[in-house]
Amino acid sequence: MRENRWQGNSVGGSWRDMTLDNARNFAAQALELARQASALGEVPVGAIVVHQGRVIGQGHNQPRALNDPTAHAEIMAIRAACAALGTDRLAGCDLWVTLEPCAMCAGAIAHARIARLHYAASDPKGGAVEHGPRLFQQPTVLHKPEVYAGVGEADAAALLKAFFVERR
Ligand SMILES: [Zn+2]
Questions:
Q1: Tens of pLDDT along 102-148?
Q2: What is the DSSP letter of 13?
Q3: Are 35 and 156 in contact (CB under 8 A)?
Q4: What is the CA(72)–ligand 1 centre distance, in A?
Q5: Please, which residues have CB within 8 angstroms of residue 110's CB and are 6 or more apart in sequence?
Q6: Residue 106 contacts residue 130 (beta carbons within 8 Å)
Q7: 54 CA → ligand 1 middle, Å
Q8: What separation in Å is there between the alpha carbon of 103 and the centre of ligand 1?
Q9: Catalytic residues
Q10: pLDDT tens digits for 46-101?
Q11: Do 78 and 49 form a contact (C-beta atoms < 8 A)?
């Protein structure tokens, strides 16, 4: 279920000014953060929050380093972005992440009122957007971002696969 998959053109909506080059650039920045996580022995997922074309928060998975099971890339990026803007709401912001968010992160994205969620690889096991609980499709969800999947998918998926093969 990927109604908003990139086709190499704009996808319409409030997002129509973003070019595919911009999208690839943001996806690449999230991927670089995922690489940093991998180098630290953390599951390679990276995320950035973009406000008016500028990155205002970034993060990668680091639950092991922080002894914090909530230290997922999206949570780290949202915390940094909220601190940067001095607010608990990220209305109008885009969140870019290399992997389909889990239920916890999808919940945080709703609480933060993120306008648009972009994720690279899908996660049939742990994802909660197009898999599992499909949080944004539930009638009780607080806020439903626009969802775009697939930009940078191959690189993000390859990085995750390599990480888990190494640790088998
Ligand atoms: Zn998560």
A1: 999 999 999 999 999 999 999 999 999 999 999 999 999 999 999 99
A2: G
A3: no
A4: 5
A5: 135, 136, 141, 142, 143, 144, 145
A6: no
A7: 23
A8: 7
A9: 74
A10: 999 999 999 999 999 999 999 999 999 999 999 999 999 999 999 999 999 999 99
A11: yes
What contacts 49, CB < 8 A, 6 or more positions away? 55, 56, 57, 58, 77, 78, 80, 81, 90, 93, 94, 95, 96, 114
How far apart CA 50 and CA 21 sit, in angstroms, is 15
Check residue 24 and report its DSSP letter.
H
Q: Which two tokens stand for residue 59?
A: 């993060």
| Chain length of the chain | 168
Identify the bridge partners of residue 71 per DSSP, sorted by sequence position: none
pLDDT at residue number 60: 98
pTM: 0.89
**Residue whose C-alpha is closest to residue 78's, from 112, 40, 37, 119:** 112
Tokens for 91, please give them.
């209305």
Tokens read off for 97: 């992440």
Q: Which residue type is seen at 88? A: D
